[in-house]
Amino acid sequence: MKSFFSKIVSFFLTALILFSTSSFTVDMHFCCNQLVDIAVWNKAKTCTEKVQKKDSPLKQCTTLQEKDCCSNESFVKTGNDTIKKANTKLEAETVIFLNTFFYAYVNLFEGLEKNIVPFKQYRPPLISKDIQTLYETYLI
Length: 140
What we know:
- This protein is of the alpha+beta class.
- Helices cover 30% and strands 16% of the residues.
- The protein has a three-stranded antiparallel beta sheet with strand order 2-1-3, with no helix packed on it.
- The longest helix has 20 residues, at 2-21.
């Protein structure tokens, strides 16, 4: 369960870093205050019909075919590239530490050829009295 949870958290953290450092543009085309087209990373398609313009000074939108009522809006999200890069310069102390750590770690799990029991040659002590019976202590 702990492994599964850590995998989920690491996936969401990598996705967060990916989306916070990337940049994109959303382009929207409105006609009569209604969203007609939306596009990500490229331009939105505009109205293609031939439109008759009215001569009135007040531009009121009555139909979608009026070209004067159309507008384009863009939303630009710039990427963040202020992430600190890792320092790959190795110094002598770091190399010595890594060599020592690796050597100790490899030898830590090195097994013995034979299972040694240190008390195999010793005899158990002689018990003169049965202590459990004497004190009447029994394991149930």
